[in-house]
Amino acid sequence: MSMSFTNEKNGAVMFQFPGSKKVYVEGSRPDIRVPMREIMLSETKTEVKVEANSPVRVYDTSGPYTDPDVTVDIAKGLPPLRSKWIQERGDVEEYEGREMKPEDNGFKSNHDPRADRHIFPGLKRKPLRAKKGTNVTQLHYAKKGIVTPEMEFIAIRENMKPEFVRDEVASGRAIIPANINHPEAEPMIIGRNFHVKINANIGNSAVTSSIEEEVEKMTWATRWGADTIMDLSTGKNIHTTREWIIRNSPVPIGTVPIYQALEKVNGVAEDLTWEVYRDTLLEQAEQGVDYFTIHAGVLLRYVPLTANRVTGIVSRGGSIMAQWCLYHHKENFLYTHFEEICDIMKTYDIAFSLGDGLRPGSIADANDQAQFAELETLGELTKIAWKHDVQVMVEGPGHVPMHLIKENMDRQMEACQEAPFYTLGPLTTDIAPGYDHITSAIGAAMIGWYGTSMLCYVTPKEHLGLPNKDDVREGVITYKIAAHAADLAKGHPGAQLRDDALSKARFEFRWEDQFNLSLDPERAMEYHDETLPADAAKTAHFCSMCGPKFCSMRISHDIRKYAEKNNLNTQEAFEKGMQEKAAEFQRAGSSIYQ
Amino acid sequence: MSMSFTNEKNGAVMFQFPGSKKVYVEGSRPDIRVPMREIMLSETKTEVKVEANSPVRVYDTSGPYTDPDVTVDIAKGLPPLRSKWIQERGDVEEYEGREMKPEDNGFKSNHDPRADRHIFPGLKRKPLRAKKGTNVTQLHYAKKGIVTPEMEFIAIRENMKPEFVRDEVASGRAIIPANINHPEAEPMIIGRNFHVKINANIGNSAVTSSIEEEVEKMTWATRWGADTIMDLSTGKNIHTTREWIIRNSPVPIGTVPIYQALEKVNGVAEDLTWEVYRDTLLEQAEQGVDYFTIHAGVLLRYVPLTANRVTGIVSRGGSIMAQWCLYHHKENFLYTHFEEICDIMKTYDIAFSLGDGLRPGSIADANDQAQFAELETLGELTKIAWKHDVQVMVEGPGHVPMHLIKENMDRQMEACQEAPFYTLGPLTTDIAPGYDHITSAIGAAMIGWYGTSMLCYVTPKEHLGLPNKDDVREGVITYKIAAHAADLAKGHPGAQLRDDALSKARFEFRWEDQFNLSLDPERAMEYHDETLPADAAKTAHFCSMCGPKFCSMRISHDIRKYAEKNNLNTQEAFEKGMQEKAAEFQRAGSSIYQ
């Protein structure tokens, strides 16, 4: 397998964004280089003036793929930008690591004909771990008052002070998912006092999809703006697929380790053991997974609470654990071994994403006893993780009608003491399969406004099939909309700059600027060109909606021009001048709409 | 031009919905026949029982096009179902009506080569008007305590009592747009104590589109669920296009008469006169337009308030009136002639949709002084209309960030004394052209929950071009989602039935039922089949998301089966039984996941 990314046409679109350039903002040391996308704008030209418009810098998740000075060869992986920072702290050591086994990819032997031969060929670094007795989590550093390079990087990225970032991490209100074995990822933060983030799920299943497709989906998702990627693969070749994804991902990678553990016991949930699970955690920890979804809150006694639900248990991880608990009539081993899991997490700095295995799968089941009982347990587990200085976020629903959304946020804040909330949507109605990116974007925007830190995207294929590349794009853009709408509603500093710049461009008929400032410039341009394809239409002071004869936006230009020409800066002056100079306006006005 | 609709394959999809049949619920007299779509469901089959699932009846806006017993010929138009009700009230008279002029279609003579020759060929009825001294509005009847057949029809349609419908209309909280010259339309109601409605805009412009396309978009939009259609045509052949649309529309039609008036004065706003406008109102009244958007609230003194906005005035009607006011330095003639307009409205029972000509066109301009000043005037005009027993709804924004949405609803309720609110979105961010159906569905769902009665759809082409047929489908379905999410959040009786039925079908792997219950069955099926096309997959107890080996939904079935078999109906019994019968569950459970 070989894919290399340059800025040549790559399929349908250029990898780099039109009218934009990649810039890096340097921090206190030369190896802190924070990538941003700078969108160049053309001038504002009126009859009375020509004014430059400052370029707009936007948050950039796309990694080196959009840097024209870098050619990424996915067979080699991305440069390990954090390696030096990790090493210089002096608290990690290289070690031999776990030996890869055939069952890591779902086979009995390495000679199984179905085994994917595309083992990642790039430089195989030995894994790192915390030295005995040390703790390498960003939470641990933050609590000790240390501002790490990761925190400074994030401060620049979010336009905040480094000390503020440290404090948010120290308090548990934010996390920096950053496994020491994933030095390729650009540091990012998840917390409600920062930009709302979005996650994109990818991953093959037993039915469909190849490694190559999954790597492509990852690069594609981060190009459009995914802040983290979850690899939810469930079929064969899980280990190898993940290796390719991590080595090439500029964003943190999350997984649900129980999926792979289940493959190792041939899909028989009751055959799962703590040992198989623990081995899987180590395997993935050494590869560099940045956060693990762990369904440790699905307690034996909560399972009966789901018996009368309309849709029972819909979380895959939740149902695996419920099956195990019922079969053995024992407490969930993720719960009983939770402190041992914490020990692993802090050895690599992997963050918990405490899974909501009992989330509602339908409007009818929203905010029920099972869901909130589990949430209380997740709050209890948050405290245990914090005792170990392990970073934690908490997963949330699911399917929830609008009027019940806020209760989810409020209860989570209370039960989990402000640990970041990470929700799947929620979907605000069940009746639109094929459009669940939309049913859920409504809920996602709202819960983001109420305080959720990261929104897990939903694609148009939800409930129907696995997303392809186009679905990934649709899902990511839809969730960028929800996240940005939430940032605006929260009054996040600077969020509105982009809206204002785009609206100003729209008002001034700077079509190219309008496209380039949008979340999906290619789509905007394509839709515009469908009706008015001529290049001249890109500078036209009208559009296909009204046509050239009367444009609703132009009257405002005349009003403004009139005010400018006559120096009518205040409303009072305007009204007075308007009266006095009605005749002049008549002459000016009548010449315009011909 | 000739299009006839049967239930043969019509382009990509059947006109009728799969798994559904058209039913009519009869009222107190045989000519009150309320159409509904009945979705048939298959049986629930478990190891221990087979149970029928009741069919689900849903609100149906599609008109005779989905009735297999009717073949619609659009050259003849739909049957005039309300004619008898209108006539038997004894307060209307036929008259000769206004003679059609070449300028009604934008030409100087009938021999202009650009004139569309497709004059509507169907039976030309003479127009009706109220007899001198009478008032034929539904509001007038409601205030007199009369329950009209229209009200009874609506009561059945909405599952409410006729007297409740009458009372809501009498109080002004709801309107029934029902021009006596549009007897083809099936009565519907717009008010916050009923289902939230959606409007779809269609219409050609000077740049693009034909009559045939517009009629097709109308039938297409109502098939997917549009409750009303606005014809916003602005180019040539406006009169003829509208005639075809009205004669074939099963839902009320709205227009913005100033658009056509402007065409009659060759696009020069300052040449508009009350006489040209009045003539246009009469022309459209006789054709059967059910509601008029009238920008009577754009007062001369408000125009300067827009001078410093980021996007000025974005409403086409608003900017036309602003242009007129400034040029003449006179008050808006729609405001000064408002009572004369009321006289026309009550002669035909046309409802006001008081236009928000100063709505914000960007996040930056949301909830500003100009917007709320105009709203106060719309409140004043509402009272004047009510004095004449003319029905009124009030239009709202536009672009509004989430945290400012509720203020719009609260202020409108207060200023306009609970007259129905009809909003365009609102869009919750400006940065996603190409996806504004989504940026606005977020705002639309929220404002619908807060009390807005009708949501004007936004298509993916908003800001970029005119919607084609696919954009209409995408826009309508997106707004059905927003409206339904709002109904759920408001706790509208019965709204959740469809969600529950679909979720139950999903849980029981009744794939066909799941598709048929969804807002867009074709899309759902198409997406499902993309990954698992085999017919067998329609009955499979798994899907492509997890594959056949482990399905997260199945554990819940085992739990339920276990409870059923052992008669464990309460949670207590379940927990006790679970403990006692662990061994039995082990045997049952272990046989399932092979």
Automatic annotation (TrEMBL), chains A, B:
Binding site for [4Fe-4S] cluster: C543, C546, C551
Record field: catalytic activity: 5-amino-1-(5-phospho-beta-D-ribosyl)imidazole + S-adenosyl-L-methionine = 4-amino-2-methyl-5-(phosphooxymethyl)pyrimidine + CO + 5'-deoxyadenosine + formate + L-methionine + 3 H(+)
Protein name as annotated: Phosphomethylpyrimidine synthase
ThiC-associated domain sequence ranges: 16-93
Pfam family, one: ThiC-associated
Top EC class of this enzyme: lyase
Signal peptide: none
Role summary: Catalyzes the synthesis of the hydroxymethylpyrimidine phosphate (HMP-P) moiety of thiamine from aminoimidazole ribotide (AIR) in a radical S-adenosyl-L-methionine (SAM)-dependent reaction.
Organism expressing this protein natively: Siminovitchia thermophila
Residues at which substrate binds: N201, M230, Y259, H295, S315, R316, G317, D356, G357, L358, R359, E395, Y422
Family according to the record: Belongs to the ThiC family.
Gene this chain is encoded by: thiC
Record field: transmembrane: none
Gene Ontology MF terms in the entry: phosphomethylpyrimidine synthase activity
Recorded metabolic or biological pathway in which this protein acts: Cofactor biosynthesis; thiamine diphosphate biosynthesis
Required cofactor(s): [4Fe-4S] cluster
Residue segments, region Disordered: 94-119
